[in-house]
Structures are given as structure tokens and as C-alpha cells.
Amino acid sequence: MTAARQSGLATRRRYRWLNIAVVTGSALLCILLLPMRLPGMQLLGVSPSWLLIWVVAWSVQRTGVEGAIAGLTMGIIHDGLTGYYPSQTLGLALVGFLTARIQRQRIIQEDFVYVALIVFGMTVIAQTMMALQISAHRLLIPDSFYPRLPEIWLQHQRIALSSAILSSLWATAVYYPLSRWWTHYHQVMEPPGG
After folding, report:
1. How many CA atoms lie within 13 A of 152 on its CB side?
2. How far apart are CA 128 and CA 46, in angstroms?
């Protein structure tokens, strides 16, 4: 084995570990931002959906299964922090899967606009999954502590729209650095001559 080849393998190994650190660190940062209510990060009492933004950023360049696994993982973490019902896991897994599938039929070429639109739509989908779970609870359990169905869906409209607007505005702050890193990472990891 030549010295250049050994150096290339060592560089790839370092970059693999660095990639793990970037992925884990960015996910942890989004998890830490989740409970924070900083000035300018709220609209009608609703804050951005940081984990959804991370799942979209991850899933844009991955397969549907990888996106669904990322959404499932982040959903379990979110449920562990906030409570298991209504579960964020279903919505985030669906978001990861759909984002990867939408990427295959890419319409808009500008990444930032594209990601902001995806985050907007996926936030509405994830919030709708929450509203459906709450509605099912209300319908199936007679003494449910949730409000009546019309109130649930009125609140859903306010929460979904506020969260979608904020999440799509903040999506670039998460997507841009991760996208740049993953582009650089794939260039380094690409085998020589390929």
C-alpha cells in the first residue's frame, strides 16, 4: 500500500467521524432549541419546529427509508421530551419519507426556496397528524380532556399556519450549513477517479 493511499484512507476515516459529529451535533442543537422561547422566534405563542426542519434537511438528499428512520428517531426523542401522546413520531416519520420522495420529482432548482416550501408543507402535514390523533382521542374516549372537534380544528389552523411560517423562515439556518457540509463530505469521500 502506498503512502498516498494510506493518507487518503486516513483522511476518509477522519471525515467519517467528523460527519458523525456534525450530524449528531446539529441534531442536538435542534433538540436544545426545541424548548427555548427566544424573542422573535414565536408567532401567536408557537415556535419553529426545529426537529422537523432537521428531518427535512436530512431527507432532502436521502432515500425514503433513511428519511423515515430519521423522522422516527427525532420523533421518539421529541416524544421523550414532551410526552408520548399525541405523538410527534408519526408525523416526523411521514415527513422524512415524503421529503425524500418529493426530492425525486424536484421542480424548483433553488435549494433555499425549495427547502422553505417543503418545510412549510411538511409542517402542515405534521400538525395535521397531531390534530388527527387528538380528534381520534376525543371521539374514542367519552370523557376526553381535549376540547370539542370544532375547537380542535380551529386551533389546528392557527398552530399549523404559525408553525409553518416560522419553520420555513428558519429552515435555511439549519439547511444551509448542513447542505454545504454534506456536499463537501461527499466530495472528500468520493473514490479517486470516480
Report:
1. 20
2. 15
Q: Which of 100, 84, 95 is nearest to 163 (CA)?
A: 95
Cβ–Cβ < 8 Å for 44, 85: no
Bridge partners for 43 per DSSP: 46
Confidence of residue 109 (pLDDT cuts 50, 70, 90): low
pTM: 0.85
Residue 172 CB: number of other CB atoms within 10 A?
18
- Please provide the distance, in angstroms rounded to a whole number, between the alpha carbons at the two ends of the chain: 20
Grid cell 410527534 is found at 88
Give, in order, the Cα–Cα distances in Å from 36 to each of 33, 42, 108: 5, 10, 32
Reported confidence tier of residue 69, pLDDT bands at 50, 70, 90: very high
Q: For the chain, what is the mean pLDDT? A: 82
Q: Which candidate, 129, 161, 135, 132, places its Cα nearest to that of 148?
A: 135
**Distance separating alpha carbons of residues 137 and 132, to the nearest angstrom:** 9
